[in-house]
Amino acid sequence: MKRTIRTTALALGALIVSLGLPAGTAHADTAEPRVDLRVLVVSDGGPATAAIAAELDSAGAPYTEVDLGQADRPVIDAGFLADTVDGRPRAKFQAVVMPNDNPFAANSAEMAALAAYEQTYAIPQVDAYTYARPQVGLQAAVGSGYAGGVDGVRAQVTAAGLAGPFGYLDGAVPFEDNSPAIGESYAYLSQPAAGADFTPYVEATAPGGTAKGSLVGEYRHDGRRELVVTFVYNQYQQQFRLLARGIVEWMTGGVHLGADRNYFAVHVDDVFAADDRWNSELNCTPGDVDCTDPNATPDPIRMVVSDVDHATQWERSRGFTLDFAYNGVGSVDHREDNNGTDELADKLIADRDEFRWINHTYTHAFLGCVQNTDVVPWKCATNAAGSTQWVSREDIADEIATNRVWGESAGLPLENDELVTGEHSGLKVLPQQPEDNPNLAPALADTGVTWLASDNSRDPVQRQVGPATTVSRYPMNVFYNAGRAAEQVDEYNWIYTSRAQGGSGICEDNPATTTCLDAPLDTATGYADHIVPLETRIALGHVLSNDPKPHFIHQSNLAEDRIAYPVLDGVLDGYQELFADDTPVVNLRMKDIGTEMQRRAAWQAAVAAGQVTAYRIGDTVTVQAPDGVRVTATMPTGTTQGGAGFGEAYAGAVSGWTSTADGTLTLGLPSSAASSPSTDTGSGDPAAPTATAPDTPVPAGVTEQVPYSAER
What was the pLDDT predicted at 21? Predict the structure, then answer.
C-alpha cells in the first residue's frame, strides 16, 4: 500500500488519540495536513549532527535543535511535534535528524512520540551516525561485515543513489586520508539484513579486503523511513561535503528553504604591474618594507605576452573566467622605461574581453595610516600630539579615480563600483592599525565604490565601510613574490620550518595558525608533491562548502613557471571528477558574490529571529518573510511562482532568490512532487524501537587548518 501526504490525513483521527492531541479538532479526519518547512535536529553534541546542522545553517534552512545534554531542554512529546492551526492539523517539522536511530533509553516515551509522529505525517528521519545491525535494517557489521578505519577509501554512489538523492554526483565519494598518523574516518560496512526493506545509496569496500557494505542507505519499516549513515564525519571532511546536499534533499523531499551551490572565483592582483621577487639568500623580498638588507635589490616578476595567451587558452579550455585586478601605473612606468612600448599591456588590452576587470588602485599605494618604515615591523606614523597620521581622503580618492580613468581609456570592461585596494589597505590591519582609516569611507563615497575587497584571514565577516560592503577574499598560499616553483618552496620552508631546521620559526611562534613541517621540502619536488595538493584540498573544501567568497593570487603566479595553474587545475579537475554535469562550478564576479553574501546575511538573520514562516499543504508552498528580505528556496524542477517557472536549474532541482508580494511567497509544486515516497512496508500501527542504540565510537576527526599566507 502506498501512503502519501494526502492519504496520511485519513489517519489523523487515530493520531489525535495516539498522540494525545486536543479533542474537538475541526475536520481533523479529512483536512490536508500542514507541514512546516523546518527540521528538528536532536543532538548529542557529536560531530555528525553538528555537521548536518552546519549544512542547514549554510543553506539557510530553518531548524530547531534539541540538545540531549541540556537539563532544561524541551521534552519531545505530542504537543512539541504537532498541533492544529486554523482547524488544520500541523506537523511542526518536515524531517527529524537524530544522532543515531534511537538515542533515548529503552521504552522511551519521547522515542514513541517521534515514531508515531513520523509514521502519521510521513516524516523522514536521518540517523546521523549509527551501528550497522538489524535494528536499522543491516546485518551486524561485526562478524559479517567490517568495522574500522576507512581513510583513503573510495566509496561509490549506487544506481539507486544516483537515481535518487545523490544524483548530482558522478558516483565516486573519496574519503580523506590527510595524515597517516591520524584516524580520520571510521565506518561500519554491512549488507541489508534478511527480509529488511533497505536500499543502499552509498557503498564501500573495506580497506585491504573484499567485504562490501552500505555507508548510507534508506530503511523502510513500520510506516517509517530512515536514512541510515554508518560512518562518522565532521562538517569539514570532503566525504561529508559531497553527501551533505543529498542528505538534505532526501529528508526534505527536495522541498525546503535555503539553497546550496558550489562556487569558485579567482582574482589575480597586480595586473600590468610587477611583483618583487623573494630572495633566497636574504630570506626576504627586496622592495618590501621589511627587507632592509643593504644588499637587497628588487628583482621584478611581470607577465609577458605568452602568459596572456596561456591564460586565455586556459580559460577557454576550462570554461572559467579569471578576474584581473589591475594597477594602471605598471604600464605607464613600463612605457616610460621602454621608449613608449609595453607589449604586455597592448596584449592585455587587445584581449580585454577575455577577462573580468577590477580597479586595484593606480599605484598600489598603502591607503591606511602613514607607514613609518624606519622600524621593523613598520608602525603607524604619529603627529606631534601622538595621534595617528592617516592617508588623506583626497589621496585615496585620487588612487581610485586615476586608475578608473586609465582603465576606461584602455577600454577595459569595468564595473566601477568594485574596488580592491593594495594589500587591502585602508581597512584595519593588526597589530599596527586596529581600525579603518577614517578617510576611507568618505573617499569611497566620493568615487562611487559600493563593493570593497577584504582579506578573509583578517576580516572574514561582511561589513559596511561607508557606502561600500566588504567582500572577503581567501588568500591562496601561492606567494605573490614567487614566479618559479623553487622560489615558492624556498619561502615556504622559511615560513614553515623551525629555527633549528634553518627556518624563521614563524610556525613555532604561531601554533594556532601554522603547523611546522617535519622537514624542509625539496625545492625541486616540494611544490608539486606537497604545496599543490594541500592548496588544492583547501580551496576545493571552500568550493564544496557553499561558500561564494573568491580566492586571490597575483599576476606573478601566471608568469615564468606559471605556478598558479597546477592548483587551479587541481581544484577544477577534482571537482569535475566528483560532480555531474548539471552541478557546475558557479563562477561569479565580485559584486555578484557580494550581493549573494549580503542576501544570505539578511535571510539568515530573519530566520534566526523567527521572522520566517514556511509550510506546505499538498502541492502548495507558502513562505512568509519580512518585507525587503528576499527568500531563498530549493524546489523540484517544474515548481512555479505566479504561473512562471521558479528559480534556476542546479543539481537536479531549481533554486534561487525571489521577492515576496507583501511579505508572502506562494509556490506551486509539480505533480511529481505532490506525494511523499511510500513509507508503508508493514504494519501501519505506531511502533517505536524499544532498545536504545549502543554508543558509537567517534575517533578524533580533522578540521580545516588555514595555513599562513604571505600576502602583499
Answer: 44
Take residue 406 and report the three cell numbers written for it. Answer: 586609465
Residues 6+ apart with CB under 8 A from 428: 434, 435, 436, 458, 459
Q: What CATH number should be reported for the domain holding residue 82?
A: 3.40.50
The β-bridge relationship of strands 197-205 and 212-221 is antiparallel
Find the domain containing 18 and state its range.
7-253
Taking the CB of residue 586, how many other CB atoms lie within 10 A of it? 17
d(CA 572, CA 589): 17
Q: Give the domain-ending residue among 194, 221, 253.
A: 253
What is the Cα–Cα distance from 637 to 667, expressed in whole angstroms? Answer: 12
- CB distance 161 to 245 below 8 Å: no
User: If you ran DSSP here, which 8-state letter would residue 678 be given?
Assistant: P
SS in 3 state form for 192-246?
ECCCCEEEEEEEEECCCCCCEEEEEEEEEECCEEEEEECECCCCCCHHHHHHHHH
Q: Are 125 and 692 in contact (CB under 8 A)?
A: no
Residue 646 reports pLDDT greater than 70? yes
* pLDDT at residue number 691: 80
Residue 690 confidence (pLDDT): 65
Longest dimension (CA), the chain: 93
372 near 339, Cβ under 8 Å?
Answer: no
**Where does the pLDDT of residue 18 fall: very low under 50, low under 70, confident under 90, or very high at 90 and above?**
very low
**Residue 24 belongs to a domain:** yes
Q: What value does the mean pLDDT of the chain take?
A: 92
Three state DSSP letters for 305-320: HHHHHHHHHHHHHHCC
pLDDT reported for residue 295: 85
CA distance 701 to 100: 18
Tens digits of residue pLDDT in 218-232: 999 999 999 999 999
> Strand order of the sheet with strand 256-257?
256-257, 631-635, 653-658, 648-650
- Count of CA atoms in the C-beta half-sphere (13 A) of 616: 28
Is 711 inside a domain boundary? no
Report yes or no on 693 lying in a domain: no
- Nearest Cα to 45, choosing from 66, 75, 61? 66
The number of folded domains in the chain is 2
Cα–Cα distance for residue pair 602/313, rounded to 1 Å: 39
Q: What is the CA radius of gyration of the chain?
A: 29
Beta strand residue intervals within 524-683, DSSP E:
551-554, 613-617, 620-624, 631-635, 640-641, 644-645, 648-650, 653-658, 664-668
Grouping H, G, I as helix, E, B as strand and the rest as coil, residue 484 is coil
At residue 687 the predicted structure's pLDDT band, cuts being 50, 70 and 90, is: low
What are the grid coordinates assigned to 696, written together? 558509537
Name the amino acid, one letter, at 558: L
Q: Terminal CA-to-CA distance of the chain, rounded, Å?
A: 66
Assigned C-alpha cell, 215:
555507508
Write out pLDDT tens, residues 68-83. Answer: 999 999 999 999 999 9
Cell of 669: 509544486
| Distance (Å, whole) CA 518 – CA 509 | 16
DSSP H/E element including 494: helix 485-496
Is the residue at 177 inside a domain? yes
Q: Which pLDDT value is given to residue 122?
A: 97
Q: Answer yes or no: is pLDDT of 683 > 50.
A: no
The phi, psi pair for 614, rounded to 5°, reads -145, 145
Average pLDDT for 504-521: 92
β-pairing, 640-641 with 644-645? antiparallel
Cβ density class 543-566: b for 16+ within 10 Å, e for less: bbbbbbbbbbbbbbbbbbbbbbbb
Q: Work out the average pLDDT over 585-609.
A: 98
What length is written for the chain?
A: 712
- Contact between residue 148 and residue 185 where contact means Cβ atoms under 8 Å apart: no
Closest CA to 404 of 392, 394, 418: 418
> Average pLDDT, stretch 542-558?
98
User: Which three-class secondary structure state does DSSP give residue 390?
Assistant: strand
Looking at per-residue pLDDT, the higher value among 674 and 533 belongs to 533
List C-alpha distances in Å: 164 to 69, 200, 238, 251, 652.
34, 11, 20, 12, 10
